[in-house]
Amino acid sequence: MASTQQRLRVAVAGASGYAGGELLRIAARHPHLEIGALTAHSNAGSRLGELQPHLRGLADRVLEPTTAEALAGHDVVVLGLPHGASGEIAAQLPDDVLVLDLGADHRLASAADWEAFYGSAHAGTWPYGLPELIRTAADGSVTTQRDRLAGARRIAVPGCNVTAVTLALQPGVAAGLVSPRDVVAVLANGYSGAGKALKPHLLAAEGLGSAAPYAVGGTHRHIPEIAQNLRVAGADDVSISFTPTLVPMSRGILATVTARLAPGREAASAADVRAVWEQAYADEPFVDLLPAGQWPSTAATLGANTALVQVALDAAAGRVVVVTALDNLVKGTAGQAVQAMNLALGLPETAGLVTEGVAP
Amino acid sequence: MASTQQRLRVAVAGASGYAGGELLRIAARHPHLEIGALTAHSNAGSRLGELQPHLRGLADRVLEPTTAEALAGHDVVVLGLPHGASGEIAAQLPDDVLVLDLGADHRLASAADWEAFYGSAHAGTWPYGLPELIRTAADGSVTTQRDRLAGARRIAVPGCNVTAVTLALQPGVAAGLVSPRDVVAVLANGYSGAGKALKPHLLAAEGLGSAAPYAVGGTHRHIPEIAQNLRVAGADDVSISFTPTLVPMSRGILATVTARLAPGREAASAADVRAVWEQAYADEPFVDLLPAGQWPSTAATLGANTALVQVALDAAAGRVVVVTALDNLVKGTAGQAVQAMNLALGLPETAGLVTEGVAP
Amino acid sequence: MASTQQRLRVAVAGASGYAGGELLRIAARHPHLEIGALTAHSNAGSRLGELQPHLRGLADRVLEPTTAEALAGHDVVVLGLPHGASGEIAAQLPDDVLVLDLGADHRLASAADWEAFYGSAHAGTWPYGLPELIRTAADGSVTTQRDRLAGARRIAVPGCNVTAVTLALQPGVAAGLVSPRDVVAVLANGYSGAGKALKPHLLAAEGLGSAAPYAVGGTHRHIPEIAQNLRVAGADDVSISFTPTLVPMSRGILATVTARLAPGREAASAADVRAVWEQAYADEPFVDLLPAGQWPSTAATLGANTALVQVALDAAAGRVVVVTALDNLVKGTAGQAVQAMNLALGLPETAGLVTEGVAP
Amino acid sequence: MASTQQRLRVAVAGASGYAGGELLRIAARHPHLEIGALTAHSNAGSRLGELQPHLRGLADRVLEPTTAEALAGHDVVVLGLPHGASGEIAAQLPDDVLVLDLGADHRLASAADWEAFYGSAHAGTWPYGLPELIRTAADGSVTTQRDRLAGARRIAVPGCNVTAVTLALQPGVAAGLVSPRDVVAVLANGYSGAGKALKPHLLAAEGLGSAAPYAVGGTHRHIPEIAQNLRVAGADDVSISFTPTLVPMSRGILATVTARLAPGREAASAADVRAVWEQAYADEPFVDLLPAGQWPSTAATLGANTALVQVALDAAAGRVVVVTALDNLVKGTAGQAVQAMNLALGLPETAGLVTEGVAP
Question: So where's the catalytic machinery, residue-wise (chains A, B, C, D) (predicted)?
């Protein structure tokens, strides 16, 4: 299937949004893709160039309404829709079409979790599109999620906050080095993570020069997804205090995640700690443990599918501190989707993706 | 002493720095102050207008070298000097002159802590200039630090990070509601907190659009000062994981601080939690617990001596989450110094200070 | 009337907007004002603290609907309303109440200009609230607009862009040194100038890291107001190319304004040029010509009623280049209104206003 | 020469700077390039990953000192050196090696201009690396500079400000529609244009939230280069008022450029004006005239080799207003260098370059 001669046609539903736009930016340079239908809801009928002026090569494309008809006849369909909207449209697409859902609808295995945090009926569970997710089996054997993506035709792409926190902590959890029972994560988030919603607190006049939290105190919808991932990595019981904060940047997530050393592992040294993360990510093309002493910045990941990670042991506090930086629209959304797509279709995992950020 | 007829003369050493400049901005509008000598080190001889172009009324003042002679003959001397420099100059000033040290030299009671984190000889301990600091006595009686500032003639003004974290957590600690043994604090910090040092990572090209941590893993010099404060508030044993992060704003600190509910208090309700913070800050002129559900932003505190606080109970995580926003140069430095000065001199505590931030 | 004993009551219509909020921030510290009714349109019924969280002392005030009844019984009424809305409400207020219109409705003397640029019926012309505006009479005698504000009871407060460009250029025009016939002005504007309108291009995700122009090519509504001011200063015929650009800051205007040396004055030296601006602003409390070689920054004016000005002669281009920096919400709106109010009421012109910016 | 089988080896001198780093970011994805020696001055001996943490694939490369030996044996050498440093090193490189100078040394044809603006001896003139530069011959025939780049082995890459202003104005000048005699250009500039120099006004604390001009009044070194380009395009006599301003973004230039309609062309309509720009750039792969009414933003060009252009006629002012947005490090420096390199080497002009910006 994966030939450079014959390009695969990809349709994007929600092409006027930030996630859809980023998918198109990457797809436009992907050696195996050809961009097909672009659809939108309220923006149907507009030229893409009015809504996504940075996508020069697609400026004259006109958005169609999001219907099964418009999305028919493609090899890949990417859904960048509001929560709750992807189930119905996906059901109308053939089983052999690869459908990637950038929204939350199909991420959670637990219908109860879905209903508790989203307040609607659960749309079902699709294979989870985080290739680096560590899977610790009951017998202790370890694989990654990428094994489950080969040949998949429905993929639920993880959220940006979840990706950052999961990548930060899973090596320590899988190795039994840190306890998943009292995790604290505080994130600095760029504004594009909130989408194009017209809300007063998302105005530039409000955001410039300011930092503010949101969804504090256990209410954020990403919490059950993080817990699910850490359980896959090997945790029995997960407790996480999760606080995102908006800071004045357009893109980027900086996740500061701490967990206690696990009972029985309190004597671990800094070298012991580092070795666990080194081993976990030694062969990952997009997750990069920095040299000791160098800390990640979000700028270094801008536009790239890279997650930068650094870990330290705070012996006095009995905690491991891990910081992850990534671009919420790339490794946190659209780049991750393309990475999962590559795996599903048997293409090289890195096809069409870059690791170099646009900095400074 | 505190008459509006006769103004008190204040000298500022380090008038070319951010802390000194902010002290001058406030002093210029203080009804009881008159600005005397302005001194600097490498900038001696320059017009203030070249270095602090926002201080219009003082633009033609010329900076003198920082010497005891230059600082003589004032009622108040404010030292905005690099760490390690204030002890020597303070020793040369008369005992009846009020000296406020904006640096760290005289904050720590423990010489061992000083030496461990700063690597030099301890300069001694001065009364601590955080008026709202809760003091829990051995008999359980509670006062605040402001009682100890009346009449003081040497005051160590706390740092900005320390102020933010202490104000966030001390009500819960003093009330025995939260445990001080596993505190996690992650801060979003504006660049002015780093001073005017010419370092590559402080360049605008690097900072714009980026977030990055520093001093991760228990190494930050503010940690022992936070622990000291929480012990004053009533903690027996303190453990804190503390991570500051630089985000693209010039001023402001947003501190996200979490602590576990104390043993025996795990059943506390959200209302129980809120009541503790409400009671602690009900009468404070500069610490403002927001209405339930409203979260602080740093923009709302810009230029004001206000600390905005909100608290939530994350029952699932067993943690209280507190967020504090303040202006690092005002409530975090120069405004706090003026507040402490007012108390020391018997002036109204709020004289010369505003609570309205410059927003948006 | 102007006694410190008896405070004047001020009502603010449009208290939920940026201009109204800034008026309140200043009024809260004004020694002669007491804040009365606060009104709004769609936000009526809300606590001010939800909408203007930086105005701590007014947080519990509840907004009333904007009606003549709500605004009755005050000494001063400030209207921060959308264009076209102030005429009707002002007509219902007694003649002896001082009404300050922050909007455009009553600024233009020419009904034709109003109709051409605003497309609605002209509401009439009020005394113009730019105290520093140079008035050159037919006989060549020179005064400023402040003379016309004493005792006024209706004042049209100028816009922020207009203030910046007028202050930049009027000394040269009044002195006949520069020609008003081919002025070019390009402005860098902060986002608060656009108000709280919920438009996609005003989102933080769009604005952070970007610069973009708007209202290019002679279409901006502020153009006839600038021309009117320059004619008052002495110009016969005015032509101006005016381009505002949004840049990533919340507040501030940096206006770069150039004009050709007037016919017959082409041999003017840099000293000649400087002397004209020096003389014009020597006694102005809020307009500050910087020392030669020092250029204005908007940061130095944040929160202050200061306009910083610098001028240079580009002999090769035959043009004078003037740069003005000011805070669009202070000297560009609310501070200017208070300054004009002070003059109208016989208070000290500088009462309640500061010249020190909040920087860095 | 241009085969995908055999990659060309490129060396970068000044690999620790912003221009050198951007060259490497592009070269790393260029299908015909292989990255050879990386050299630096004070940073020689460092790992690239410490200095350019966004260039993940090159993180372990070690910088060598900048010597002719280190640069020997490459097909292409890119010099990202301080002004005045490239002449000597270039003289030591073989004539058949393609040398691209990102600095100013070899851009000006006039030694007198060089000496007047740079104050040192002129290093000589190389073919000018702006492929889209319109060349109007004495007989009125029109070509572009790209014709002169084929086979070139020494190329002087233009500066970012110059590229923005030249692309804005040259169509009108070449067509005789606008006069080059009284051009006004005001630019909003991101901080990366100033390089990594450690100067106080380049600190993030100073730049965040502020706008300020520099090199005002005809002193900027880019002025003679702009004039040279406009003369090549067909101007007889050029006069330009040029003012750059620093605004709070890391990358990007927004140039607002105005010129009077030429004598005899005062009756030109908006359609006439637009037609001139449309015709000039119809076939350009990297210069994009936006649809009428849509204005450029710098965000849309981030990381791309795109220049976005829009033009309007201000009939009342008798001026054409043109706005150009580009990324100063890409179309303004490193992308332009690669574009010129492609032409020199007979590769496809667009090889290794993208037109899609990273937005929002």
Answer: 160
Q: How far is A193 from chain C (nearest CA, A)?
A: 9
- Using the beta-carbon criterion (under 8 Å), do A317 and B218 form an inter-chain contact? yes
Any chain A CB within 8 A of the CB of D28?
Answer: yes
Phi, psi of C353 (to 5 degrees): -115, 145
Q: Quick one: average pLDDT of D87-96?
A: 95
Average pLDDT, integer, range C212-228 = 93
Report CB contact under 8 Å: D318, C182. yes
pLDDT of residue C219: 84
Return the percentage of chain C with pLDDT > 90, whole number: 95
Q: What are phi and psi of B337, to 5 degrees?
A: -60, -45
pLDDT digits (tens, 9 = 90+) for C20-78: 999 999 999 999 999 999 999 999 999 999 999 999 999 999 999 999 999 999 999 99
As a whole number of angstroms, the distance between CA C277 and CA C280 comes to: 5
Q: What percent of chain B has pLDDT over 70?
A: 99
Query: Which of B160, B177, B235, B276 is the catalytic position?
Result: B160
The architecture CATH gives domain C8-158+331-345:
3-Layer(aba) Sandwich (3.40)
Integer Cα distance of C184 and C165 in angstroms: 10
Q: What is the structure's pLDDT at A2?
A: 43
Amino acid making up residue B280:
A
Task: Establish if C250 touches chain A: CB-CB under 8 angstroms.
Answer: yes
- D134 near D235, Cβ under 8 Å? no
User: What number is the ipTM of this complex?
Assistant: 0.96
Rounded-to-integer distance, Cα A182 and Cα C305, Å: 50
| Whole-number percent of chain A with pLDDT over 70 | 99
Whether the CB-CB separation of C14 and C81 falls below 8 Å is answered with yes
Average pLDDT over residues D92-101: 97
Kindly report the number of other CB atoms within 10 A of residue A318's CB atom. Answer: 17
pLDDT at B340 over 50: yes
The position carrying tokens 């102020």 is: B163
Are B243 and A321 in contact, with CB atoms under 8 Å apart? yes
- Please give the structure tokens belonging to residue B261: 């509910």
A148 band by pLDDT with thresholds 50, 70 and 90: very high
Q: Which residues contact A190 (CB under 8 A, 6 or more apart)?
A: A246, A247, A249, A250, A251, A252, A253, A298, A328, C205, C208
Distance of CA D201 to the CA centre of its chain: 24
Pair D255, D185: CB distance under 8 Å: yes
| pLDDT at position D297 | 98
Q: Are A232 and A136 contacting, i.e. CB atoms less than 8 angstroms apart?
A: yes
Per residue in C81-122, pLDDT tens?
Answer: 998 899 999 999 999 999 999 999 999 999 999 999 888 999
Question: Coil, helix or strand for A244?
Answer: strand
Which of D 181-210 lie inside 8 A of C, CB atoms?
182, 184, 186, 188, 205-206, 208-210
Question: Which chains pack against D, by 3+ Cβ pairs within 8 A?
Answer: A, B, C
Residue A229 appears among annotated catalytic residues: no
Domain boundaries, chain B: 8-158+331-345, 161-329
Provide the CATH number for the domain formed by C161-329 in this structure.
3.30.360.10
Neighbours of B50 (CB within 10 A): 15
